[in-house]
Design a protein that fits this description.
This protein has nine helices and 18 strands. The protein is an alpha/beta fold. It has one domain: TIM Barrel (Alpha-Beta Barrel). Strands 3, 4, 5, 6, 7, 8, 9, 11 and 12 form a nine-stranded mixed sheet that branches. A five-stranded mixed sheet has the order 14-13-2-1-17. Strands 10-18 form a two-stranded parallel ribbon. The protein starts with 5 loop residues before the first strand and ends with a strand. 49% of the residues are buried. InterPro entries: DUF72, UPF0759_sf.
Length: 410
């Protein structure tokens, strides 16, 4: 009988009980002075870059970025750096980030676009917005040199697919320097349609795939960007819960098939479920490390038996549009399809503790109108060097409890 995974509040921490990893969970941690940690990379798929959505997964009282990066780089080769969502920062800080990255060979950042563009202006282009785009993507991101990989544009759940907003997206795509890789995360499900994929394909931008309680499942779609970008936000609720093998395995094959098709293809996978832990070991670290292990252990279908990836206008298997979950319905389910493959429905209990009616994980509420904290929590990365302040309620996590569709060619 499967042990039910729950979350239990202990002081300011959310602790995983009944983890799918069981007693093996600690082997995916940070190692010891006598045993190095498992490195979070795949020998079979070196073009798959796996990391977390902030440095909040690193435990310890010293929150300066230099100290956290020293620990983080023992396991990881990429970081989704989201502090830029709140403030672009001056050139000196970007130089410091580059210097820290170069302490580990091949280390790169993905950089989150500033909220001025995505949440305040909602991609509305005028002279001021265009100047911001050039300042951010051309002047600042270029400082990082080869330590910069992808620009992440995360749009708010209030940004609905309308004719006006579609035009804004199309125009915005013409303003970003053509040599900058971009991945776009939509948080309203009306965007998952062929017109959106066509715009991304024309720009050679990636659709952010993955799962969160806000959007449910987002399909893996090849938009001719040359890379996939997957974010996993929480197995039980936003930013919390261990995925385990059952929750991670469905995402392995689409990545393998994509990378097998072309040696130049890349994939970026970021875990945003750092708000839950066991003995100080965040869910994001455990799941990310196990995901790398699964890439090496799992075998993609052979060329004769592999399902063909659609390169034409084969209809998308669209994720169902969903409204507020029904009473008693876990957040990692959809009304039409039932439990998402991954953590089964019996593994979704959350014990917030007495007197705690809410949390950053938003165990209840509509997925299209998240709290401001939940909407922007993945932006609360570790701050600039010598100025880090991370609250336990603003840590990020990523985890996927959904079964992705096979890769579709948009």
């Amino acid at each position: 009988m499967r042990v039910k995974q729950t979350l239990e509040k202990e002081g300011c921490k959310m602790v995983v009980r009944g983890s799918p990893y069981g007693a093996t969970r600690k082997k995916y941690g940070w190692g010891t002075p006598f045993a190095p940690p498992k490195v979070c990379s795949s020998s079979k798929y070196p073009n798959v870059h796996i990391g977390t959505s902030s440095l909040s997964c690193v435990s310890g009282k010293d929150r300066e970025m230099q100290k956290l990066m020293s620990q983080y780089q023992r396991k990881f080769i990429t970081l989704e750096h989201c502090t830029t969502y709140h403030g672009v920062g001056d050139a000196e800080n970007w130089q410091k980030w580059k210097k820290l990255a170069r302490k580990k060979k091949g280390f790169t950042y993905t950089i989150k676009a500033n909220n001025y563009l995505t949440h305040k202006r909602n991609l509305k282009m005028d002279l001021e917005s265009e100047a911001h785009v050039q300042h951010f993507f051309l002047e600042r991101c270029s400082i990082l040199g080869d330590t910069f990989s992808v620009g992440l544009v995360q749009l708010p759940s209030t940004f609905v697919c309308t004719e006006e907003n579609t035009s804004r997206l199309r125009l915005f795509a013409t303003k970003v320097p053509a040599n900058v890789k971009v991945a776009v995360e939509f948080r309203h499900r009306t965007w998952f349609n062929e017109e959106t994929y066509s715009i991304l394909r024309e720009a050679r931008w990636a659709l952010v795939s993955g799962h969160s309680p806000i959007t449910g499942n987002v399909p893996v779609v090849d938009t001719n960007a040359g890379f996939l970008y997957i974010r996993l936000h929480g197995a039980l609720t936003m930013y919390m819960g261990d995925y385990g093998q059952e929750g991670l395995q469905p995402w392995v094959r689409p990545i393998q098939e994509y990378c097998d098709r072309d040696a130049t293809h890349e994939a970026f996978v970021f875990f945003n479920n750092s708000e839950s832990e066991v003995a100080g070991l965040a869910s994001s670290v455990v799941d990310a490390t196990h995901f790398a292990e699964l890439l090496d252990k799992s075998t993609a279908p052979g060329s004769e038996t592999r399902e063909k990836v659609s390169r034409t206008n084969e209809p998308m298997v669209q994720p169902p549009l969903e409204s507020e979950p029904r009473a008693g319905q876990p957040l990692n389910t959809t009304p039409e399809s039932g439990p998402i493959n991954g953590p089964p429905s019996e593994n979704t209990e959350v014990n917030l503790g007495a007197g705690n009616a809410s949390s950053s994980g938003r165990p209840t509420g509509t997925p299209h109108a998240p709290t401001e904290e939940a909407e922007n929590a993945d932006a609360n990365s570790v701050g600039e060097p010598n100025s880090e302040r991370i609250s336990s309620t603003k840590r990020k996590q990523s985890d996927d409890g959904s079964k992705p569709t096979k890769i579709q060619k948009a």
